[in-house]
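Budget justification, computational time. The allocation requested in the original proposal was used primarily to generate structure tokens for proteins on the priority list. As evidence of use, we reproduce two of the resulting records. The first is shown immediately below.
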Amino acid sequence: MTTPFEPERRKPGFITGLRSSFLTGIVVIAPVALTIWLIWTIMGWIDGFVLPLVPTRFNPEQYIGINLRGIGVMIFLVFTIFVGWVAKGLIGRSLIRFAESLVERMPVVRSIYSGVKQIAETIFAQSERNFEKACLIQYPRKGIWAIGFISTEARGEIADKAETMGRLMSVFVPTTPNPTSGFLLYFPEEDVIELDMNIEDAAKLVISAGLVYPNAKDPTQPAKAA
């Protein structure tokens, strides 16, 4: 029962219902479509780079008559695994050292090669040089909080010459929505607050500009381990 002072509630109209269904469909379709498009595009890019390097008699397109997307990706994976297997052996390591000694004699090439090698090792190599924990730090000033990734304890000249009484922690502060760019900052250990969330959840939070929390049901609690 409604009183004269209560506004009458109207049921959503037909157009409103269609609009709501459309937006819901976009939310469902967009992630799937974008993922498929991205994978399809990367496969095409790799195929376009690899297949022209493959001799004609080894190209499957010559035998089946159609261009199957993904063949170049498979060839690239097999070739990469083979190179990695050879590089782990004694002969492979000797060849790599010989090739790098030649590169070191080339002024411009050695700078490019050294930079690309360091980036590749940092991104792909399985080593101890990974982010350890997600953390909170006050940046760019006191009272403003930012998410960071603890890299390691500061060492060498940085630790010796920094005017601090305690340990320094190197923290990578990512930017939104691209967490691969950011700032390398050094904070006193007592100013770094470690978070319970893992690196992946913290990265999702940064990428989504704070919209995707690790625990959507209760953001005050860390996400439960699967």
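The second record produced under the same allocation is shown here.
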Amino acid sequence: MEERLKIDIVIPIYKSKNTLEALILRLNTWSLENSLDCRVVFVDDGSEDGTFELLQALKTQIQFPFEAVRLARNYGQHTATAVGLSLSNAPFVAIMDDDLQHDPADINRLLEQLIAEKADLVYGVYKEKKHGLARNLSSALLKKITKSKTMDFSFVTSFKVMRSSVAQSFRHAVSPIIFVDVFLLQHARKVTTLEVVHSPRIAGTSSYSSWKLVNLALGIVIFHSSFPLKAIVRFGFLMSLIFFVLGCYFIYQKLFNDVQLGFTSLIVSIFFSTGMLLLSLGIIGEYIRKIWISQQNLNQVVVSERNSA
């Protein structure tokens, strides 16, 4: 008898009362129909609407092995996903959303693609996104902001399957994660994609507002790239060159034309250079603050409740 492939499915949930029951019913049907040996890890990201209590009440309806984790507060989808990955122990791990915009049946296709391509990570990419116009525009802006020679998240989605070696990067994760895919892509030797269906939400609206997506993009640029530091160096060099040229000009005027150096030019130069220094020190200070918080263990993720069946 052929051994069934084992896979853990990580599903971060947040304010999901309107979709949770339908999600469980769909997972029940899928788990009974397919040949995979699956376990689901639900990670409640500090919901305050009774989502975790509803999950507990639905335990008798769940027909597959699962683990339910509740975080002490809302840390964000990527941190909740990282916590779920740290609890995975199967050879393969899938990640999907809680709103049924991802079809669990596509996990089989993603897994087949992963094995056939001998890849470490496969993303389910959408031919047509069913988000709202504002969400789609914000997502496009995020990918534009974060794209560079070393970073390209144009194909990244929240629906993916990976080998355990990639998920193991979060085995000891205790700190909040800004963008989980940065770590996944770093640990994946080969990455591939597969087109999947992106369905409309069955209820409610996405918790990701346009402002949250822009903040996510800025967080990726600031804390997962050296772009701000490089920008400071280049800006400082440019301003130093400009100030040098202006200084030479004023010295020339003073020596050869006997022009009185103006008070206005002096004040403008002082304010401008001071503003540049303050801006640079502010960004550098933000890096130092993050390092200090991490070293002091002030940003640990707290799991307030955990049970399984």
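A brief technical remark on that second record: The first strand starts at residue 6 and ends at 13.
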